[in-house]
Amino acid sequence: MPSSPSRSTDHAVDLDHLKRVTSGEAGLEHEVLQLFLRQTSRLVAALEISAEQTAELAHTLCGSARAIGAFRLAERAAALEQAARQGRDGAAELVRLRAAVAEARGAVEALLRRS
């Protein structure tokens, strides 16, 4: 990633980061945000049915979240990935992940409505 989080964790999506990774191009930003929505839906659904792939799915979700600046979601996904790799239950991490997904998706949907 070309930039690191600016630690604006009070927002679901770091808009400065998003603008940097999309070079401020509104069309590209819109495309990236729509891709994020599709990807998170698919990944969260897969997490519900595939315990064997939890680490890999959480890792992918972490990367998707970081790409748009959803750093709180990325942290939650990384925590679930770590729990899975360590063979721990991960139920608490999954609950926190779901909340972060809902928050990030809500922010992304609001951004898309504005554009």
Topology:
Blueprint: H1 15-21, H2 26-49, H3 54-68, H4 71-85, H5 91-114
Helix pairs in contact: 2-3, 2-5, 3-4, 4-5
Structure, described:
There is one protein chain. With 115 residues, this protein is mainly alpha-helical. It has one domain (15-114). The chain has five helices and no strands. Helix 3 runs antiparallel to helix 4 (71-85). The longest helix has 24 residues, at 26-49. The chain is elongated. Residues 1-9 have low confidence and may be disordered.
- Give the termini distance in whole angstroms: 24 Å
Please tally the helical runs, counting DSSP H or I stretches of 4 or more residues.
5
Task: Tell me the strand percentage band.
Answer: under 5%
In total, the number of domains comes to 1
- Counted beta strands: 0
Could you give a short account of the major beta sheet? none
What would you call the shape? elongated
Low-confidence stretches are 1-9
Summarize it.
The chain is mainly α and 115 residues long. It contains 5 helices and no strands.
What structural keywords apply?
disordered N terminus, mainly alpha, single chain, 115 residues
